[in-house]
Amino acid sequence: MSTPDHADRLARLRAELARRGLDGFVVPISDEHMSEYVGAYAQRMAWLTGFGGSAGTAAVLPAKAAVFVDGRYTVQVRDQVDGALYDYVGVPQSSVAEWLGANVSAGQKIGYDPWLHGIDWARGLAAALTAKGASLIAIDSNPIDAVWDDQPAPSAAPIAVYDTEQAGQSAADKRGVIADWLKAQGLDTTVMTALDSIAWTFNIRGEDVSHTPVGLAFALLHDDATADLFVAPEKITDAVRAHLGNSVRIHDRTAFEPALAALAGKRVAVDPDRAVAAIFTALEGAGAKIARHRDPAVLPKAIKNSAELAGTRAAHVRDGVAVARFLKWMEEVAPQGGLDELGAAEKLRAFRDESGVLKDLSFDTISAAGPNGALPHYKVDETTNRAIETGTLYLVDSGGQYADGTTDITRTIAIGEPSAEMRRRFTQVLKGHIALATARFPKGTRGSQLDILARQYLWADGVDYAHGTGHGVGAYLAVHEGPQRIAKPAGGQAGTEEPLHAGMILSNEPGYYKAGHFGIRIENLVVVEPVRIEGAEEDMLGFETITFAPIARNLIVGAMLSPAEADWLDTYHAEVVEKLSPGMVAADREWLAAACAPIDRGVAALAA
Asked: Matching InterPro entries, A to Z (predicted)?
């Protein structure tokens, strides 16, 4: 629950708004790049409200305030945000625009920071407020920054060169491809704001955002294959300057907005999903001709080349050794008692650190015991930390950042003897996981067309899970990467989604969550690959599984698996042993062989 300090922070913000002649303000979890994860300096909503999730918004009026979160954070927001200060509002059932529309009065002025919101969001909210006689005001400086006394400064960590050998393509070649695209579209320049796109395009990496190896920067790329990179000068080393070469002009990050004003008369591509409202306003004010296009780095970044795939495979084997050692340790230690979620997460981090090459975790580890496992996006801290008790399930979703790849894996294990219900649900989740892993589908298929494969066995029992089945993953970049995904169709428009392409990396992570009791998820990463089918009349694709770690055999009801499913599991476990054993000591290898032994296929009573 929020401390009294959050009441003081809210009062100070309201006083600052009144001083500026504003009646309200909208506070997103966002930065100038519309990143999923943001640096400490941009955690304004967390500072104001106490909410620690990765997605959400707050809205403040003189006498009321609200926090807006989706179903992932329904429980967390109530634990962290004081209900006496803020209304809890669920999205998409409602929205900031709906709540403000119901609570503003005619003549009121609601402020927003145009460097933290998208243009379509701003225009939509402006229209909703206008309908109520109120107005939306773009502000020059964020009022939270004025009252946040100990606000961290943006990271000053230096940018690093990402070797062409690991990237598989030079930065100059990537700029050339983008220049060709600009010329084909009749455009002069594209604005690039997404931090992972900039890192990929220029073959650089950074340390400015926790768990995502990117540096704070903006870029303009031109049809002659030159570029302007806007980054704090102290972050550029001589090695980076030499790497970028003369075709990349380096400017202070503060020079970005003036550079937009200099694009008068130019035909400029801007991605409305990744560029903030302030960029559109600056370009419109300058008289540039704006063309809405998706960031040209998004798709080539998602389709990994052979070097990126080779590095990712190596990273997954290394990571699998750490995860397997952790699972062995859990099997030995957890039943003795005295272990909690934080302790388990720390131990898993220690196993990864022992590789000597771990750069960072790829996200905050979800270390969830018992009923906490039923919260798909649970984040353990000192206030929620739960003991790992016998008779419960423990779910751990974690990943590592290595210079050659990004990993993301979930395993669920039983502490002590699992119940029949736990085993039945686990086996249903496993069957869905196998159905997706073994899918064959024609080129052009979207992820939403495959999503039902993972859910079908749960649906047969009238149950489901509320998250997507698969997200894209970067190559030593963001653990959540678009445009590919495997999920129910967004708004029912499957045809608007990006088809799956060979070389894309996705997660395969069906689950089941019984509120207040336990959660189950089995997650491996897969690579889309061409497959040969004799007599096929279509170009066909399938998945190569690249994550390797044991799947809990004592949670599987062997009689519920078809012979083909049991064959897949045994083959997968044999490959786990083959790939991980060389990196393990003898005792660990012995445990791994037992954990990956063939499944008991004997006829047994089905779990109730």
From this structure: Creatin/AminoP/Spt16_N, Creatinase/aminopeptidase-like, Creatinase_N, Pept_M24, Pept_M24B, Peptidase_M24_C, X-Pro_aminopeptidase_P
Q: Do 296 and 307 have their domain in common?
A: no
Question: For residue 22, is it within any domain?
Answer: yes
Token pair 């145009």 is found at 114
In a domain, 155, yes or no: no
Rounded Cα–Cα distance for residues 283 and 299 (Å): 25
User: How big is the CA angle at 53 (ends 347 and 281), to the nearest 5 degrees?
Assistant: 135
Four-point Cα dihedral 334, 336, 341, 344, nearest 10: -50
pLDDT at 508 over 50: yes
Q: Which domain holds residue 284?
A: 160-301
| Residue 174 phi, psi dihedral angles, 5° rounding | -65, -40
What is the Cα–Cα distance from 90 to 77, expressed in whole angstroms?
10
Same domain, 36 and 172: no
DSSP class per residue in 91-109: TTTS-HHHHHHHH--TT-E
**What length does the chain have?**
608
Residues 210 and 129 in one domain: no
CA terminus-to-terminus distance, the chain: 39
Nearest residue to 328 via CA among 598, 600, 581, 599: 581
Quick: pLDDT tens for 367-386: 999 999 999 888 898 989 99
Rounded Cα–Cα distance for residues 306 and 309 (Å): 5
User: What is the pLDDT at residue 474?
Assistant: 98
Which residue in the block uniquely carries the two structure tokens 């779990």?
A: 607
